[in-house]
Amino acid sequence: MSAKPDRHPAFMPVILLGGLIFGFGLGYSHMARPEVVLNFLQFEDFGLLFVMGGAAVTTGIVFAVATTVLDRAPLTGRAYSRRLKSFDKNVLVGGVIFGVGWGVTGICPGAAYASLGIGNVTILWAIAGMFIGSYLQAFWRARSSDTGSTSVASD
C-alpha cells in the first residue's frame, strides 16, 4: 500500500474556499435552479454555456501555468499527471444515463447541493435518487464482477 503524501495545512481551507466560491457562483448565476438548466438543455437560455466556459478557461490556464512553473501540486505534494481514461462502453452508457438524469431533473450533482443553499428543499428527492443510483450501480458492478470471476474459474 502506498503512503499518501503529506497534505499542506491549507489544503482543507482551500477546498472549503473553492466550494464556497462554486456554490456562490452557482447561486448568483441562477444555475442552481433546475428550470434554468432545463431552459439551457432546450436551447432557450445559454447562460450555462458561459458558466462552463469560465470554468474550462480557468482550469486550462491554471493547469498550463502550474504544470510549467511547479513540479508538484502545492497543496498535496503529488506530481502533476493526467489520468487518461479510455473511451469504452462503460463511459458511453454511463454518460447517456447521466445525461438522461440531468435532463429529467434539470440539475447536476454539484448544482443539486448548491440548490439546497437557495432553499430548494424538494431537490432532496433528486439527491436521494443520486445516492440510491450510485449505490445500486456499485452493487451491480460488484455482483457482475463476482459472477464474472466465478464463471471464469469454472471454465
- Note the gap between the termini: 32 Å
Low-confidence stretches: 150-155
The profile of the biggest β sheet is: none
Mean pLDDT: 83
Beta strand count: 0
The outline comes out as globular
Count of the domains: 1
Radius of gyration: 20 Å
Strand content: under 5%
Helical coverage, percent range: 55-70%
The SS-based structural class is mainly alpha
Number of alpha- plus pi-helical segments = 6
Sketch the topology as an H/E string, one letter per element: HHHHHH
Give a short summary of the structure:
It is built from 6 helices and no strands. With 155 residues, it is mainly α.
What do these coordinates show?
The chain is mainly α. It has one domain. It is 68% helix and 0% strand. It has helices spanning 11-28, 34-41, 47-69, 89-105, 109-117, 124-154. Helix 1 crosses helix 5 (109-117). The chain is globular, with a radius of gyration of 20 Å. The relative contact order is 0.11. Mean pLDDT is 83; it is low at 150-155.
Write the layout of secondary structure elements.
Blueprint: H1 11-28, H2 34-41, H3 47-69, H4 89-105, H5 109-117, H6 124-154
Task: Give the tags.
mainly alpha; globular; 155 residues; 6 helices
